[in-house]
Specification:
signal-anchor, four-stranded mixed beta sheet, seven-stranded parallel beta sheet, golgi apparatus, transferase, globular, membrane, sialyltransferase cstii, chain A, alpha/beta, glycosyltransferase
Length: 407
């Protein structure tokens, strides 16, 4: 079976490194085994990430990093009032006390205790843009750095991320009623989603993360209606609006309390983010003239946006999803999928994480997306390693670090 590249949802065809052209052209065919493989969301030819197996010595992130300490069956359930997790979290006066991963998690699971590095910054904001950081990241290609990008564009974008809200995914002090922050990850893929009506998870999750074309209308009782975060690259966002329009996905989610998580996979992500905060049209690049307000609404202030740190993306790829695809002739295309990046982000910021609709071992029994009327096979993209991701989710589930919903 051949692999055919899909055109990006942008003017000017395939982008190249940074903001320039070059790279692969639409219609190029790549062999990729017997499964259905496509390339979606790549920006042309870029160099493989410079991945180091050594521990990253990075400044601590302002967002508190946590994990799911125990495994409660197939759905995330609150710990017992007098259970070990509650005891570890509750201090005098019932205040939340942050437990140490090294004291709890590392002792519980030697394998993942060596892999997780919670001192790696998850998000990037204005204070990260220093001459030292620029000199270091300008040597690495996006999404792992800034090589080929304009220093002026990157700097002017990051300087707009100057609010305290840009430094953490959510403000724990704003939720005095409880210490356990349950998060659910909702991709648009995998038809195993349609499970029956009124699933309990839709009621117990404090935060719900959605991405790409996660259709809600008509599936409210299956996938819920809560949206706390929407994660994306500009390319996956625009591709989703095109590919899933026929299923009713005609607009990016908008709500007062909704926050947007940018994955900086290309020059266009920095430019779109800057324009969205300023409330102006995109001034340059493949999205020139585009109005961010049609995606994020007319009142999208800087506080609504989060930007994943390139160091965090490199760390996730190097330690969790270092695929053998990096060693092939197509290694320059590889990066973890949007869903994988967002799920791993949740694992570094939430206390309990439940993953619904992610690939499982019996994926062939289900349609590609839960909202498809007729069953369609899961499409494998050559710039992602879905089987490696599936193995990771199984391992994290078995270790009790997250809950993977499986049928």
């Amino acid at each position: 079976m051949a692999l055919r590249l899909q055109k990006q949802a942008q003017t000017g065809g395939w982008g190249g490194r940074g903001s320039g052209g070059g790279g692969l052209s639409r219609g190029d065919v790549l062999p990729r085994g017997s499964r259905r493989w496509q390339v979606l969301g790549c920006s042309g030819s870029v160099s493989p990430p410079q991945l180091s197996p050594h521990r990253l010595l990075l400044p601590a992130c302002c967002s508190r990093s946590h994990w799911s300490w125990l495994r409660w069956g197939h759905r995330a359930e609150p710990p017992a009032a007098d259970g070990p997790l509650k005891a570890a979290w509750r201090g005098k006066g019932g205040r939340c006390v942050q437990p140490s991963w090294h004291e709890l998690g590392a002792k519980a699971d030697p394998k993942f205790g060596e892999i997780f590095r919670f001192d790696t910054p998850v998000l990037m904001w204005d204070q990260h843009f220093t001459p030292e950081t620029w000199d270091r990241l300008k040597t690495r290609h996006v999404p792992y750095g800034w090589q080929g990008l304009s220093q002026a564009v990157v700097g002017s974008t990051l300087r707009l991320l100057n609010a305290s809200a840009n430094r953490h995914l959510f403000d724990r002090d704003a939720f005095p009623g409880g210490c356990v922050f349950r998060c659910g990850r909702v991709p648009g893929r995998m038809g195993l989603w349609v499970l029956g009506r009124g699933q309990p998870w839709t009621r117990v999750l404090r935060f719900s993360h959605r991405l790409n074309g996660a259709v809600i209308k008509g599936f409210e009782e299956d996938v819920g209606t809560k949206i706390s975060f929407y994660g994306f690259t500009v390319n996956t966002m625009k591709n989703s609006l095109i590919a899933y329009e026929e299923y009713g996905f005609t607009q990016i989610p908008q709500a007062k309390d909704l926050r947007y998580i940018f994955i900086p996979s290309d020059f266009r992500d920095y430019v779109m983010l800057k324009s969205a905060i300023q409330g102006s049209l995109v001034p340059e690049g493949s999205d020139k003239g585009d109005d961010p307000q049609k995606y994020f609404g007319p009142e999208a202030s800087a506080e609504k946006f989060k930007l994943l740190h390139p160091d965090f993306l490199q760390y996730l790829t190097a330690r969790f999803l270092r695929s053998e695809l990096l060693n092939t002739q197509y290694g320059s295309l590889y990066m973890p999928s949007t869903g994988a990046l967002m799920l791993l982000t949740a694992l570094h910021t939430c206390d309990q994480v439940s993953a619904y609709g992610f690939i499982t071992t019996n994926y062939e029994q289900f349609s590609d997306h839960y909202y498809e009327v007729e069953k369609k096979p899961l499409v494998f993209y050559a710039n992602h390693d879905m089987m490696l991701e599936a193995a990771l989710w199984r391992s994290l589930h078995r270790a009790g670090i997250m809950t993977l919903y499986q049928r």
